[in-house]
Design a protein that fits this description.
By secondary structure, the protein is an alpha/beta fold. It has six helices and four strands.
Length: 163
Amino acid sequence: MRCETCAGGEDHSPKEASLHFLPSAKLDFADDRYYHLLMSTVSRIPNSGLPVTSVSKVKLRKRGTLRGLVGLTTVSVEGHQMNQKEEFKPEGRHEITFYSSLLDRLSDYAVVAVMAHELAHAWLNEHVGPEASEQREEDADMLAEMWGFEPELQILERETEPV
């Protein structure tokens, strides 16, 4: 991957790109296919200068507890911090989980769309659960589209039923 924003435009591997975008994340992937798809997805996210430091773990599990769940971004609140406007806001740690039992049914393009969508949730610093509002889902899709994943999101839409 060619880094246009770095001085000198050095070449970076997808692994190095993940370290920039997710500097605090531990990756827990036993399946090479999904690990490589995640690295590819992360390497395509434009370098905005704002890495996602709140993600502590990105993992792959066989299945979730909710029917039809392919990926989930959760946040645990550990304390409070002051933001620039002197307001308190929760300080949380995100954990992103992908579920291979359903991802196995999707093309690589659709899997990349799922990954971009969940990374967008983390970037937007949102806690996503089954009760999440439709607007949060739309916001994550819009950010993933801005990152350049619109073709993959369209493929995902064709390959799946709305949940």
